[in-house]
From TrEMBL:
Residues 13-125 form the Phosphoribosyltransferase domain. Pfam families: Pribosyltran (PF00156). CDD domains: PRTases_typeI. The keyword Flavoprotein does not apply. The keyword Oxidoreductase does not apply. This is Xanthine phosphoribosyltransferase.
Length: 134
């Protein structure tokens, strides 16, 4: 992914979607030599049996010159919100499921819609529960 985003000088920075995009965002920043890294925090929760998105924190601007990164685009709910907030950003993910694929500019791996992704930091072999319990 990083090699496809070269030359790195074209980017002002990276906006990582918390929490899934934090680790990929840090790795991408390292590979591209980008020091300006910000976050957008979106929470999805059930309210009266409807799944709603709540923006807890956002990076300013329309995304021009920025890469927005998340680990996965699934059904597209979060991706639609990201596109509305940052219409001029270049939106990338590591994994893309069919329903969300049209919403991202680039991704690394196609996966079936019904596939569950085990991130290395969430696997039992190396998983340590967060101190906060969340």
């Amino acid at each position: 992914l990083a090699s496809r985003l070269m030359p790195s000088e074209q980017w002002k920075g990276i906006i990582a979607v918390s929490r899934g995009g934090l680790v990929p965002g840090a790795l991408l920043a390292r590979e591209l030599g980008i020091r300006h890294v910000d976050t957008v925090c979106i929470s999805s929760y059930d309210h009266d049996n409807q799944r709603e998105l709540k923006v807890l924190k956002r990076a300013e601007g329309d995304g021009e010159g920025f890469i927005v990164i998340d680990d996965l685009v699934d059904t597209g709910g979060t991706a639609v919100a990201i596109r509305e907030m940052y219409p001029k950003a270049h939106f990338v993910t590591i994994f893309a499921k069919p329903a969300g694929r049209p919403l991202v500019d680039d991704y690394v791996v196609d996966i079936p819609q019904d596939t569950w992704i085990e991130q290395p930091w969430d696997m039992g072999v190396v998983f340590v529960p967060p101190i906060s319990g969340r």
